[in-house]
């Protein structure tokens, strides 16, 4: 112990910071594993055959399940999800009720992203007149977003800050599927390149490496300071012994 004297303050700093740095590193690794499992589940479900909307609510976790719809959109009631960006452009996502003829169920379909460069002019979109056969996938968010103003605007098309499908059905006074479904490329779709996740597993691993590197640097500095301090103390004692009569 005479060769290692870090001192009280550096020891307290390490005790306070090191557990946090290690926790952040392991947390990022855990998040990476979760994102990897999410991507694998999404890929597997995207390869599966689509099901009818009446089967969706029988599944405990229907996220990314493909759905086959045959029917028509309700052109009179459209919702615009505000503040969506693509390639640096501001726009909206267009959601419209769709009545599936085989099941008779109403489904809230997200038709994709539209640019909205001039907010003085309503976004331009059209609704197919003829019945369509389309494929979509279930979007189930992991949690509710924080929204300051939860009240939608009046009139049609109606501007939204967030999507709560059950609230939209209440506005329309209809009983519909409790999940938003997002169109795959094809008939009736606009820009539908939604990212599955905002951060890839590799990015989480990269952040974990950074946190572990900071922890290692903290330990290295602690050891260096302790050895350097002990060396200084031994030098001072040696000088004192030489000056002693």
Q: What do you see in this structure?
A:
The chain is of the alpha+beta class and 245 residues long. Helices cover 39% and strands 23% of the residues. It is built from 4 helices and 7 strands; from the N terminus they run ααββββββαβα. It has a 5-stranded mixed β-barrel. The longest helix has 43 residues. About 2% of the residues have low confidence.
List its salient traits.
245 residues; alpha+beta; five-stranded mixed β-barrel; 4 helices; elongated
Ordered list of secondary-structure elements with their pairings:
Elements: H1 8-47, H2 53-56, E1 66-73, E2 79-86, E3 89-100, E4 106-115, E5 132-139, E6 158-160, H3 165-172, E7 176-183, H4 201-243
Parallel strand pairs: 2-6, 4-7
Antiparallel strand pairs: 1-3, 1-5, 2-3, 3-4, 5-7
Helix pairs in contact: 1-4
